[in-house]
């Protein structure tokens, strides 16, 4: 059996793995690279295999960084089966067309600019219709159902507790009268995520591929996250500001709604206050996803199911409203009364959230509250990391709003949660591949795993290739062009961020500011700028030398 890492290795986005066994070609996930423009260019790369040769695509869950290139795959000739849980198939049926619509809208906007500049027009990665056309390839199965594929391969999905329908994928491959078991964790959920069950444990694995999004830290506020949420909302509303929550349309949005509903008795005074505050879910996708949640009650934990069985709707309350049209969305920013706005995208890279940020980031009485992971290079990450200004729709926006984050609402297990899950495997893997995380997160998690479990760890690069048997692992020739492209695009992304930081620095360092500094402070600033200048000169010399 051969396993090739096509994405989701030293990156937090674009999960995709290519497995070849017994003459069968199998993809595990086919995700979209998300983040900076340069990283997103990777989505347009040709697939490094004959698309028509892929027999199966096994999908761990519906998030776009795991499913987002499926329409591209189908558009280019895939004719096999896409196997996943029912809830994942239901979510993909709304998320992928939505993603196609976004692709078309963004390309239309870019092409208007390109046409004015006399540049050639570009095509979207795929269209809304392309995404609709790929839904016919989905073959939903139940959790724990053993599915036999051609080529002496058996698979099973278990609940990963990350989003509705998310899965841990177990694969058994029988080759030459020997069986190898490989396990993909998918994205593992946090303990006690609202609505969802906790991640299930597995018995054994020869090889484990595990995510590491929060592999270097422990979630804070796990116990008092609701109290913190309520405090932030009340303090902001009392000041006359808005609480803007950039939220993933699938998962976090429904969980926040559920939390506000769930604690209405425990925090009665707070909920009485909140009952007079309008809460808007401003995302058509989130509205559709909420309907999918209501139709997949079997994925709920016992507590949430009990609400439903008692005739209560855990995804609704009287002052909750859904805005469907662009006009309804725009009108939110014209309303004078304080409100809570939950809007996609969760990393602030696209969609209606950018309009709400444009209207609220400069307001000192408003709060931007992050409840999910922010990938490097995204607008959300820059705001969370303390940027003083950002550009939105070409306009420079000062950040005066209160910026908060509640990691306890993350859909990803933290370091301890990941460690506990691996520790629960009775028959430990021979090797563990750590993927889907920032490098510092991967290395920190590798260190603690090796120390506590005495297991061999591999942190693969994109394009790395391995031969796996029940007894050994052999490094094969890598797909070097994938690795090289990724490194080059990362460098260009860093340059874009640096360019924006220098732009804001030149705006900030004016004569008036410098007049207020002591001579010693001026000398330190000057020294730091000279260091940067010298580094840039050295890079220029390197580039000239290579031409």
From TrEMBL:
Organism ancestry: Bacteria, Bacillati, Bacillota, Clostridia, Lachnospirales
Domain of life: Bacteria
Gene3D superfamilies per the UniProt record, alphabetical: 3.40.50.10890, Ribonuclease Z/Hydroxyacylglutathione hydrolase-like
Matches recorded under SUPFAM superfamilies: Metallo-hydrolase/oxidoreductase
Hydrolase as UniProt keyword: yes
TM regions (residue ranges): none
Beta-Casp domain: residues covered: 253-383
Protein name: MBL fold metallo-hydrolase
């Amino acid at each position: 059996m051969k396993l090739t890492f096509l994405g989701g290795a030293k990156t937090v986005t674009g999960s995709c793995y290519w497995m070849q066994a017994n003459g069968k070609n199998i993809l595990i996930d086919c995700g979209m690279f998300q983040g900076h423009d340069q990283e997103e260019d990777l989505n347009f790369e040709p697939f490094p295999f004959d698309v028509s040769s892929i027999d199966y695509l096994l999908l761990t869950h519906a998030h776009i960084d795991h499913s987002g290139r499926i329409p591209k795959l189908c558009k280019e000739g895939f004719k096999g089966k896409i196997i996943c849980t029912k809830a994942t198939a239901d979510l993909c049926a709304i998320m992928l067309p939505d993603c196609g619509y976004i692709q078309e809208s963004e390309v239309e906007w870019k092409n208007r600019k390109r046409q004015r500049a006399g540049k050639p027009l570009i095509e979207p990665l795929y269209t809304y219709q392309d995404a609709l056309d790929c839904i016919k390839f989905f073959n939903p199965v139940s959790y724990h159902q053993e599915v036999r594929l051609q080529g002496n391969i058996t698979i099973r999905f278990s609940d990963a507790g990350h989003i509705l329908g998310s899965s841990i994928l177990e694969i058994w491959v029988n080759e030459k009268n020997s069986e190898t078991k490989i396990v993909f964790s998918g994205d593992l959920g946090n303990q006690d995520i609202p609505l969802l069950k906790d991640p299930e444990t597995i018995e054994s694995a020869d090889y484990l591929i595990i995510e590491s999004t929060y592999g270097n830290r422990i979630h804070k506020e796990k116990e008092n996250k609701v109290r913190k949420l309520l405090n932030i909302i009340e303090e902001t509303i009392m000041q006359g500001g808005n609480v803007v929550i950039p939220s993933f349309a699938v998962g976090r949005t429904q969980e926040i709604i559920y939390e506000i509903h769930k604690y209405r008795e425990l925090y009665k005074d707070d909920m009485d206050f909140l009952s007079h505050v309008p809460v808007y879910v401003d995302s058509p996708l989130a509205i559709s996803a909420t309907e999918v949640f209501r139709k997949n009650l079997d994925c709920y934990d016992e507590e949430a199911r009990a609400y439903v069985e008692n005739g209560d709707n855990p995804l609704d309350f009287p002052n909750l409203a859904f805005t469907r049209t662009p006009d309804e969305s725009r009108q939110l920013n014209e309303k004078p009364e304080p409100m809570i706005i939950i809007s996609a995208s969760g990393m602030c890279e696209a969609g209606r959230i950018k309009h709400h940020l444009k209207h609220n980031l400069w307001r000192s009485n408003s709060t931007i509250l992050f409840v999910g992971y922010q990938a490097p290079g995204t607008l959300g990450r820059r705001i969370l990391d303390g940027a003083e200004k950002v550009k939105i729709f070409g306009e420079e926006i000062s950040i005066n709003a209160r910026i908060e984050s509640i990691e306890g609402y993350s859909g990803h297990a933290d370091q301890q949660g990941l460690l506990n899950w691996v520790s629960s495997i009775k028959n430990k893997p021979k090797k563990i591949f750590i993927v889907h995380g920032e490098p510092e997160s991967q290395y920190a998690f590798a260190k603690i795993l090796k120390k506590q479990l005495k297991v061999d760890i591999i942190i693969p690069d994109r394009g790395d290739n391995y031969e796996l048997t029940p007894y050994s692992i052999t490094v094969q020739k890598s797909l070097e062009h994938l690795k090289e492209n990724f490194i080059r695009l990362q460098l260009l992304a860093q340059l874009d961020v640096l360019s924006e930081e220098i732009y804001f620095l030149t705006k900030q360092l004016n004569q008036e500011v410098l007049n207020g500094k002591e001579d010693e402070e001026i000398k330190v600033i000057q020294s730091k700028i000279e260091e940067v200048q010298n580094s840039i000169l050295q890079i220029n010399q390197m580039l000239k030398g290579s031409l």
